[in-house]
């Protein structure tokens, strides 16, 4: 049941982001293919049998998302949709905690350990409500600080996940390593969910806010 919920949550991340960027197929096509390829490999337990291969997948994910971001034109995107994506970090963290209870990841990767990502999900709810009252919240210094720290938090959690995995550089979770993210469907956390969260943060960083819509600054 937990796996089904996580799979549905992953698809929800993709769907909301897809609508946030005005159904741009430059995002949907590569993500659809990547989701299918990673899913098949994880379902066949390729990453569980060869954890080091997942490091290559992470690097490939970074390259793919960089290419997507360079090509997508974000025009008049509602920043509130991006905040909804950040709110979904709460159920993700609750699922991670259940994976810890199931002995699939170490405690250090949860909000009981060094993962404070759930706080950014709750703060996203506060910011979303505040934006309904006053649009200028998106130009507020506190919003920008939350945005920047949110990226750092996600990057830190990914680092914890890597260093907790059963690979030569493992530093944490020796007695209870991170094996969940090497299996289906939890493999989608670092290759689908995390990139979407980061892209959402970067989009708001580069945006000129006007009312409830935003436009990406042209820096070319």
Describe the structure using short key phrases:
9 helices; disordered C terminus; mainly alpha
Describe this structure in words.
With 220 residues, the protein is mainly alpha-helical. The protein is 65% helix and 5% strand. It is built from nine helices and three strands, in the order ααααβαααααββ. β2 and β3 form a beta hairpin. It is globular.
Q: How many strands appear in the DSSP assignment?
A: 3
Radius of gyration: 17 Å
Determine the structural class based on helices, strands and strand pairing.
mainly alpha
Main beta sheet strand tally, sense and closure: 3 strands, antiparallel
Alpha carbon gap, first and last residue: 47 Å
- Averaged pLDDT, please? 88
Question: Largest beta sheet: what is the strand line-up?
Answer: 1-3-2
Write the layout of secondary structure elements.
Blueprint (H helix, E strand, L loop, with lengths): L1 H19 L4 H19 L2 H4 L2 H20 L3 E3 L1 H9 L1 H13 L15 H17 L7 H23 L24 H18 L1 E4 L2 E4 L4
Antiparallel strand pairs: 1-3, 2-3
Helix pairs in contact: 1-5, 1-9, 2-4, 4-9, 5-7, 5-9, 6-7, 7-8, 8-9
Short description:
This protein has 220 residues and is mostly helical. Helix content is 65%, strand content 5%.
């Amino acid at each position: 049941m937990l796996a089904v919920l996580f799979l549905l949550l992953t698809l929800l991340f993709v769907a909301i982001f897809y609508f946030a960027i005005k159904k741009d197929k430059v995002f949907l096509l590569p993500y659809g293919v990547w989701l299918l390829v990673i899913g098949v490999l994880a379902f066949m337990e390729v990453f569980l049998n060869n954890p080091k291969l997942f490091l290559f997948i992470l690097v490939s994910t970074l390259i793919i998302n960089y290419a997507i971001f360079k090509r997508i034109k974000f025009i008049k995107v509602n920043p509130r949709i991006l905040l909804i994506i950040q709110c979904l970090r709460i159920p993700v963290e609750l699922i991670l905690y259940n994976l810890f209870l199931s002995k699939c990841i170490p405690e250090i990767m949860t909000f009981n350990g060094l993962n404070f990502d759930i706080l950014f999900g709750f703060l996203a709810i506060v910011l979303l409500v505040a934006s309904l009252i006053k649009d200028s919240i998106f130009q507020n210094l506190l919003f920008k600080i939350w945005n920047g720290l949110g990226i750092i938090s996600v990057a830190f959690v990914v680092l914890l996940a890597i260093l907790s995995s059963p690979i030569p550089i493992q530093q944490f979770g020796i007695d209870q390593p991170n094996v969940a993210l090497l299996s289906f469907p939890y493999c989608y956390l670092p290759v689908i969910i995390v990139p979407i969260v980061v892209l959402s943060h970067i989009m708001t960083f580069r945006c000129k806010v006007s009312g409830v819509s935003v436009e990406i600054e042209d820096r070319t």
